[in-house]
Structures are given as C-alpha cells and as structure tokens.
Write a structure and sequence with these properties.
Elements lengths: L13 E4 L5 H12 L3 E6 L3 H11 L4 E5 L5 H15 L4 E4 L14 H29 L3 E5 L3 H4 L5 H21 L5 E7 L12 H9 L9 H12 L10 E4 L6
Pfam families: adh_short_C2 (PF13561)
InterPro entries: KR_dom, NAD(P)-bd_dom_sf, Sc_DH/Rdtase_CS, SDR_fam
EC number: 1.1.1.47
C-alpha cells in the first residue's frame, strides 16, 4: 500500500462524484458545492455538461476529469487529478452508470460488458484507486449509487439489475472491510427519477410508472442528492453497510 504523499488541507473538504456532470450526479455535485466542498466532477462522455457545471460551481473549487472508470487506469487517473488539485479526498460518490433496455436474448456481449463495466466495475475500480487514501487517513465516507432494481430486479433490464445488486453486495463487503479504519460505506437505491434514463419512455409509459408510485410522482435528482449527502455526513456517523431505498414507496 502507498500512503498519499500530499498533505490534505483540513480546512476544506473534497468530494469526488463519478458520473457527476448530469442527472443525479450533477445534483450531488451542486449540493456538496453549496455546502462549501471542493468537487471533482468525473465524466465519461458528457464533456460539455461537465465544463458547464464547473463554470456554474466555480473553477476555484471544482474540477472536471474525463475517465472511463470501467478500467482501473481510468479510476487511477481520477485519483491522481483529485490529489494533485485538492490534496486529498474526504468523500467518494460512485454514481457512474448506464443502462441497456431490452430482453437479455437481444443484448450483445458488448452491451452486457459495457453495462457491467459502467454500473459495477466502475465503483469497484474507483474504490480500489482511493482505498489507501481512506485507509491511511482513517476517516471518510463512500456512497455508492445502486437502484431499486438491484433490490427487486426489473424485466427488460436484467443486466442492469444484476450490476446494481452487485453494488449493494459490494457496499456491504466494503463496509465490513473498511470499518476498522474508520471509513463508512453505504449505498442509495433510487427509484424512478426524472433523468435522461427515463427519456426512452413515452409519456403514457411514464404515466403508468407514476401510477405505481405511492407518492404519486417521479423522484427528482435532488431527492437522491439529499440522501447521499446525509449518508456522507457526520450525522450518519453510526451508519455503515446500509442501502437507503429512495423511491417514494415504489419498492418497499
């Protein structure tokens, strides 16, 4: 294990948000920024959105990093950039992901590998990249974004469901592994959230989804950001290894 060589500025905390340029990730980035944090916005292909978010939040305490986190080299580059810019990381939010919609028989091997890479391996590799930083500092929090489909499964999204279930199991395992080092690891499982992932559905299909939500509405990215921020904060100091279901009662 290699101990970080750059001294972290204790007066300013830093969060790394993967998939941080759009949707849930952007809401998480904005919330942490409003609370005074430095923010590392990681993105794979949403370069314009990432740069716009950096401009919005302020270049003094926000940086965008392009990386393919389905490979460890990408995660290692994010760590290098975060340490170089801000000196350390206090919270890691693993939000990167993608989804392929359709029956398993119609999915190509490339589709399957991409989904597992984006939704599961990205979190594993990113935690691996920052592992020593958290373990040596003996503090910090990791929040992984799963999905209610990781809890109950979804027809037409079998691989996505499997990957998100893997996130939940990974969260539990890492919570046990890192707890002796003073590091907490939790997950959030969003339900139907108003993001680009729902753009494939026709208005009548969205209406059917909303009809199944006891709260009577789609979730907003900010609903998930609030849960992430709570789990990352000291207010959740005795919570680890848990998955917070934020779905308006869609899955109970």
């Amino acid at each position: 294990m290699i101990c970080p060589t750059i001294t972290h500025n204790e007066d300013k905390k830093t969060v790394v948000v993967t998939g941080g340029a759009k949707g849930i990730g952007a809401a998480v980035s904005r919330l942490f920024s409003r609370r005074g944090w430095n923010v590392v916005v990681c993105y794979k292909s949403s370069g314009d959105a990432a740069e716009a978010l950096v401009s919005e939040l302020g270049v003094e305490r926000t940086v965008a990093v392009k990386a393919d986190l389905s490979a460890f080299t990408g995660a290692a580059e994010v760590r290098r950039a975060a340490i170089a810019r801000f000196g350390g990381v206090d919270v890691l939010v693993n939000n990167a992901g993608s989804s392929e919609y359709g029956v398993l028989a119609d999915m190509s091997e490339e589709d399957i590998r991409r989904t597992v890479g984006d939704d599961l391996l990205s979190a594993i590799f990113t935690v691996k990249a920052f592992y020593d930083d958290f373990a040596f500092s003996r503090k910090g929090s990791i929040v992984n974004v799963s999905s209610v489909w990781g809890i109950c499964g979804a027809s037409m999204e079998s691989v996505y469901s499997a990957a998100k279930a893997g996130i939940i199991a990974f969260t539990k395992a890492m919570a046990k592994e890192l707890a002796p080092s003073g590091v907490r690891v939790n997950a959030v499982a969003p339900g139907a959230i108003k993001t680009d992932m729902l753009s494939r559905f026709a208005p009548e299909e969205l209406a059917d989804i909303i009809a199944e939500v006891p709260s009577g509405r789609l979730g907003a990215p900010e609903d998930i950001a609030n849960a992430v921020y709570f789990l990352a904060s000291e207010r959740a100091s005795y919570i680890t290894g848990q998955t917070f279901n934020v779905s308006g009662g869609y899955v109970i």
